[in-house]
Automatic annotation (TrEMBL):
Keywords assigned: Germination, Lipoprotein, Membrane, Palmitate, Signal
Protein name (database record): Ger(X)C family spore germination protein
Major subcellular site: membrane
Compartment list: Membrane
């Protein structure tokens, strides 16, 4: 038996130690550090931002959360506001925000930004410069929404105290999501979509408008929350039309609905038609909608067919009709088809004449199908003003409810 250890046996423990050290070093290299982290007690969480134009300068308003007033323990006993608003001006948006460091005691943190509000003056002057900052900032996510203040300044909107939600920016965010889902007269616009539409030839953006209903001076005070019927409220109203990056005008409710149907942005909506052959109205609820734009090249000129398929329910009947008859249901569908086709075609013609901005995306679909012809067009918005658009709606009634006859007829028999 030999008691002498070989060289390989002597080196084995050392090799194991070196291997373990290398593995540990590699693992530590894979760990990410918190080089950009900030403690909660050293930051101000920005939830809303307003951008106005004053002469050549930007006036920027930010809405930040007051953590001492939104905590569960203090919310019921404190009379303070849940948010604080700061305003500052600068030649650029980031300069104005940097100037706020002399007012805000903490670092401004943008990862929870919910709403960006453009004032009409700022939107009319062009939004590309503010968008450049918003898209470059690494602290911002892309899921916040853009809106335009209608006949008001963005600062007025962000200084209004909301009733149901102590944080007004969150209130605006949830309001927009709800109305976008259940009522087709609004639309949500996030950063990625806005950048795409501003930079894509053949598709101009449109953003939901917000206005203040009532006395905005009282709306800035905590007294606004002490009434059953508040003196001032937010209300989403129509959409702002942009030609490239500049605001050019407003869409009303019907025009906004038409836009959403064409660009396939309707989840649910409600409308009505006159009762066939009698007085009263029938209310119809759209529960599903699908739209497809078909471009054509006819004698060298672009033309479009818009096919819209809608599934819906009968929600209300105010006249004496028999819904058990298939012919009656067919007549209701045809009446609704004709009404929607007329509304959408008239709306498109109005936008062509008044604004000349393709907010529907006709040019985008034409570019995709006919790239060679597209590159021969120098100014699509000029061509868009005279293109022919035909709208075809097929509304299918899926449910008529649990009763065949209207309640009014049943109670009179």
């Amino acid at each position: 038996m030999s008691f002498v250890r070989s060289a390989d046996e002597e080196a084995h423990p050392l090799n194991r130690a070196i291997s373990a050290g290398l593995c540990l070093f590699t693992f530590l290299c894979l760990l990410t550090g918190c080089w950009s982290s900030h403690e909660l007690n050293s930051i101000s969480i920005v939830v809303g931002m307003g951008i106005d134009k004053v002469g050549e300068r930007y006036k920027v308003t930010i809405q930040i959360v007051n953590p001492s007033q939104v905590s569960v323990k203090k919310a019921s006993s404190s009379n303070g506001n849940a948010v604080v608003a700061y305003e500052e001006t600068g030649m650029t948006v980031p300069e104005a925000l940097s100037r706020m460091s002399v007012k805000a005691s903490r670092f401004l943190h943008y990862s929870h930004l919910r709403m960006v509000v453009f004032g009409e003056d700022a939107a009319r002057a062009g939004i590309s410069k503010p968008l450049d900052f918003l898209s470059r900032n690494m602290d911002m996510r892309t899921d916040f929404y853009f809106i335009v203040a209608k006949q008001a300044k963005a600062s007025d909107v962000l200084n209004l105290i909301s009733v149901l939600d102590p944080i007004p920016a969150n209130n605006m965010y949830t309001m927009l999501e709800t109305s976008d889902k259940y009522w087709s007269a609004t639309g949500s616009m996030n950063l990625n979509r806005l950048l795409q539409e501003v930079g894509t030839p053949g598709k101009s953006p449109a953003m939901t408008g917000i206005e203040i209903i009532g006395n905005k001076n009282i709306g800035k005070q905590s007294a606004n929350t002490k009434y059953v019927k508040p003196p001032a409220l937010f209300k989403y109203s129509g959409m702002a039309v942009f030609n490239m990056d500049r605001f050019v005008g407003w869409l009303d409710e019907n025009d906004t609905k038409a836009l959403n149907y064409v660009q396939n942005s309707v989840s649910q909506s409600t409308g009505y038609i006159p009762c066939p052959g009698s007085q009263g109205n029938i209310t119809l609820q759209a529960i599903r909608s699908n739209s497809v734009i078909h471009p054509h090249l006819v004698n060298g000129a672009p033309e479009f067919d818009v096919n819209i398929g809608i599934d819906g329910d009968i929600a209300d009947v105010e006249c004496t009709i028999d819904l058990s008859q298939a012919s009656v249901v067919d007549e209701i569908e045809q009446l609704n088809n004709s009404k929607l086709e007329t509304i959408i075609e008239q709306s498109i013609a109005k936008i062509q004449k008044n604004f000349g901005a393709d907010i529907y995306g006709f040019g985008k679909t034409f570019h995709k199908k006919y790239p060679q012809s597209w590159h021969q067009i120098k100014n699509w918005n000029e061509v868009f003003q005279s293109v022919k658009v035909r709208v075809h709606v097929k509304f299918t009634i899926r449910r008529i409810g649990t009763i065949m006859q209207p309640i009014e007829k049943i109670t009179t028999e």
